[in-house]
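Narrative summary of target 7.
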Amino acid sequence: MRHIALKLLGVLAMGDVDAISEPKRRSLLPQWRGIRPDILSRDGRRWVECGRTSMDKLEHLMTRRDLDEVLVMCYGRQNDPSSSRLSRSRAKHPRGAVLRFHIWNPEDVDWISKRLMGSNDVEGKMTKDGLLLSLNGERCLMRLERMNV
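Modeled conformation, tokenized:
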């Protein structure tokens, strides 16, 4: 359920961007056929990964010029945005996709996981400190740490 909670946070973090959750392989551009995002903007310029993501995949995505942004939704320290490998890759490909990490508090992700049902009433507003979330009538301020590579 944590992965679904992260996907919900990813869709809310994209704001009013029209997004597809788990796009079908045939809807992806040919250069993406080997890998799939958890969430993709309909224009194909914003890619969202949820949970633990391999360094190889992150490095590959951030070097792509056909992406504007790669957003990694994680909790705790699932991924290491301070990795020297990512910094070296950014130095080699300065015009590649912007790699942004949204690191959520694990207790907040669990709060969402426990309240998700088959059908959900969701509203969210991003703030400078996180996300003000209303889920099935309950409200919570989700704490967020942002890091860019």
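The chain has a mean pLDDT of 87.
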